[in-house]
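@channel sequence for tomorrow's demo:
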Amino acid sequence: MRSILIDTDFLEILDTKMYVMPDSFTKLQNAVMASTLSYFEKLLTEFVIVYAIFMAVLIISMAYFSIFIFKKLKNSMWNTNMLLKIIPPNILNKKDDDLLK
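C-alpha cells (generated this afternoon):
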C-alpha cells in the first residue's frame, strides 16, 4: 500500500480524478445541456413553421372547395334534377314521382 502512495503516476491520476475531472465533467455537462436546448428550440421553431404552412394550405384548400367546388356541385345537382323532371310522369310509379319533387 505504501508503494502505491509513493508512486507519482498513481498520485497524478488521483489528483486528476479529484480536482480536474469534476470541473471537466461540469463543463461538458453544461455544454451538452446548452447544445440540447438549442437543438430542441430550433426543432420547435421548425415544427411551428411547418404546422403554420400546413394550416395555411388547409384553410386555402377549404376556401377553394367551398367557393368553386360547391358551385360546380350545385350546378351539377340542378342539372340532374332538371333531367329527372324531363322523364314523363306516366312512366314513373307514384312512389318514384314523390321522390322527385
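heads up for whoever presents: Residues 2-100 form one domain.
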